[in-house]
Amino acid sequence: MQCLICHSMIRLSWTLSYLMMPQRSKTETICMACQKTFHEIDEASACPKCGRQQESQNVCKDCQKWQANGSYYYINHALYQYDEAMKAYMHAYKFQGDYQLRHVFDTKFSQFIKKFAVFDLIVALPIDKTTWTTRGFNQVLGLMGDLSNNEVLYMKRDRDEKRQSQKKRNERLQTGNHFYVDVECRQQIENKKILLIDDVYTTGRTLRHAAETLYRQGSDRVESVTLCR
Amino acid sequence: MDKSEFFGRLVLMPRDWTNLETSFKKLPTMQIAETRVRCLRCHTWHDKQVVALPRNEFYCSACIQLGRVSTLENFVTLEEPNQFEILDTYLTWQGELTPSQKRCSEEVLRAFNLSQDHLLWAVTGAGKTEMLFPGINDALQTGKRVCLASPRVDVCLELFPRLQAAFQDVDIALLHGHQTDPYHYAQLTIATTHQLLRFYHAFDVLIIDEVDAFPYAQNAQLLYATKQAKKQTGMCLYLTATPGDILLKKVRQKQLGVSYLPQRFHGFPLPEIKTKLVFNWWKKVKNKRLPKALKTFLTNCQQAKRQFLVFVPHINQLAVVLKAINKEFPDLKLTTVFSADEHRLEKVQLMRDGRIAGLITTTILERGVTFPKIDVCVLGADDGTFSSSALVQIAGRVGRNPKRPTGTVLFICNGISRSIKQAQRQIKFVNHKAKEDAYAVSNLS
Ligand SMILES: [Zn+2]
Ligand SMILES: [Zn+2]
Ligand SMILES: [Zn+2]
Question: Domain residue spans in chain B?
């Protein structure tokens, strides 16, 4: 088996741990050296609102700002730190479009998502039509491995942007929010606890737009899980 | 996008892209077979499962650094029109060639003219680039599109200013992976061989430098890239100091013309390789004992105050060999270096300044890095990491200075490998050629 990142051969050593957990060793997709470049977030010293790695468990500055203007409940959980190694990975996976690289994290990430079993629905953030014809895949769905997604959120096409001006005022206040819930899916999300899934939490803006959209359509509670923060 | 950017190029465009002009040719990006797909840019086969995208699309992961090829796109190309401005002067270089350089240079020019594939086999330090100038000049004057390609970025970077100085008025495009400048259409292009994959029937004259810098497997891909990049009526000139099996076979079968420049500019022969069989040399060194042959080699260097290079096959052997030598020769100042070494440049400089006696290394260092009067020892020369061309290059480090045109090249090995035999044979052959009438072009059999 070749490491998906550095292409060196992954040596399956016949150590005790291999003999005890052969399945686990078989699913390694990257070598030890590459694994070490990524850093998991330690919940004990992460922001409880956005999952950012920091020194303490206090709410971080960014989240304090969000709290000041926001009126609804929303928190994010993240698995890895969004550091140099992770940025390089995202570049190769998402922007160069090397879809195989989803396997670097899909097992771990889907296991992480499964921890949030109290939620009724798992909803991956969608991508727009243009991305489908250029990138050809939704990077979030790729990372979710064998977990199934509930397709209730959609992305408005860029062209619709112009028509914004013709919309009602309260809709216009939502500028920049490109998400909508398909009419037929409304029942599915009403009074439900929804877990949004995304690849990266950067400013939190996109995820909050998605959460708002779901709340407006009657969801009971929305949280999110991202691969990195 | 300017139309000229499509001339002789494979440009990736969305599948639904259309242009009213009919001269634009759309080509498929991938060949779809039962269980596999093949990238039509780099020619790599992939398992469908591995490179599948959702919705029954596929992509190529092998050449993704050049921008992803997938079934979501088509290649779009325009036939190479040779639409170049006619200049008053092309070659502005005014240097002189030695008689044997001149002979090779004329043979190269003739191969360009006849559009026949050709091999220029010149020993390291023979002044290859200058020999190309008259031929390139002639090709440019007759409106041909010319490319000079090398597998190595550093070689391209070194060639660019030299060619620009020799052809001052000519627009030269430099293409490599670490670059941010956008591509532009030019009559003369310098590119890494990897970049050739983006061309399609573009060049009348394609010159490949250091063809054998890569092992055999990658060579097949390189030959494919070459075939794609040159026009069907075009030709290819291979430059090398150490031709590999593929090229030599073609020469023997008379599919490839050949020019030899067996002489170094100082006229002395290449030092021949001495081998010493030492069974289990690595075990000895690990136990901090040096093989007798290495001890003698180092003693000789030390007494004559000559600098030396000791090559080892693997990076993790460097420190072990250093320890063993330090124990046996505590007064000898030396250090280790490898290609990704953070302090590589500083260490090479120490060596150049004569502040250390020697380097233990895994790499032949940069081209152009020469130490005037050194001896060389290769530990484990039979290791698979040393190709025959690498071994010839290593031997070629010795005897470059006219003040000391000879030197010791010692291979310490468990056995005589095929690569060692080939390297010895090539050096003997070249030296024999040099002694012979240098003007005769003979076959290799
Ligand atoms: Zn790796
Ligand atoms: Zn926070
Ligand atoms: Zn390819």
Answer: 3-77, 99-261, 274-435
* Mean pLDDT for the stretch of residues A140-144: 97
- According to the model, what pLDDT value does residue A57 have? 92
With 50 as the cut, is the pLDDT of residue B445 above it?
no
Q: What is the pLDDT of residue B248?
A: 82
Asked whether the beta carbons of B192 and B175 are under 8 A apart, the reply is yes
* CA-to-CA separations, B348 to A102, B156, B283, B353, B364, in angstroms, rounded: 42, 21, 29, 9, 11
How is residue A137 written in tokens?
């895949």
* Assigned token pair, B241: 């100091």
Helix boundaries (H) for chain A: 16-20, 22-26, 32-35, 61-69, 84-90, 106-114, 129-134, 139-143, 169-172, 186-189, 205-216
Least confident range from A20-24, B52-56, B217-221, B342-346: namely A20-24
What one-letter code names the amino acid at B435? K
Closest residue in A to B67 (Cα–Cα):
A96
Q: For residue B362, how many other CB atoms are within 10 A of its CB?
A: 20
DSSP B52: E
Percent of chain B with pLDDT over 90: 61
Q: How far is the alpha carbon of A186 from chain B, nearest alpha carbon, in Å?
A: 26
Is the domain spanning B99-261 CATH 3.30.300.30? The answer is no
Checking A29-33 for CB contacts under 8 A at 24+ apart, the result is: A29/A1, A29/A3, A29/A4, A29/A103, A29/A104, A29/A107, A30/A3, A30/A4, A30/A5, A30/A6, A30/A104, A31/A3, A31/A5, A31/A6, A33/A6, A33/A8
Q: SS3 of B28, please?
A: coil
Hey, which residues does B57 pair with through a beta bridge? B53
Q: Please report the sign of the dihedral spanned by the C-alpha atoms of residue B54, residue B60, residue B64, residue B66.
A: negative
pTM of the predicted protein model: 0.78
With the C-alpha atoms ordered A40, A45, A50, A52, is the resulting torsion angle positive or negative?
negative
- Whether A138 and A126 have beta carbons less than 8 Å apart is answered as yes
**Residue ranges of B 70-89 with Cβ closer than 8 A to chain A:** 70, 72
> In order of start, what are the domains of chain A with their CATH numbers?
29-228 (3.40.50)
pLDDT cut 70: percent of chain B above it: 93
**Spatial contact of B298 and B321, defined as CB atoms under 8 Å apart:** no
Out of B15, B16, B59, the one facing A99 most closely (by C-beta) is B59
Q: What is the pLDDT of residue A165?
A: 45
- The residues, ordered by sequence, that sit 6+ positions from B107 with a Cβ below 8 Å of its Cβ are B118, B257, B259, B441
Q: In which band, very low, low, confident or very high, does the pLDDT at B329 lie, cut at 50, 70 and 90?
A: very high
Rounded Cα gap, residues B345 and A153, in angstroms: 55
Q: Closest ligand to A46 CA?
A: 2
Torsion B77-B82-B83-B84 (CA) sign: positive
Nearest to A136 among B16, B61, B70 (CB): B70
Query: For residue range B293-321, what is the model confidence (pLDDT) as tens digits?
Result: 999 999 999 999 999 999 999 999 999 99
* Cβ contact, residue pair A137, B72, below 8 Å: no
SS3 for B328? helix
Look at residue A171 and give its three-state secondary structure. helix
Q: Over 50: is that where the pLDDT of B440 sits?
A: no
pLDDT(B366) > 60: no
Spatial distance between the Cα atoms of B121 and A171, rounded to a whole number of angstroms: 73
* Second-level CATH architecture of B274-435: 3-Layer(aba) Sandwich (3.40)
The closest of A97, A5, A94, A103 to B71, measured between CA atoms, is A97
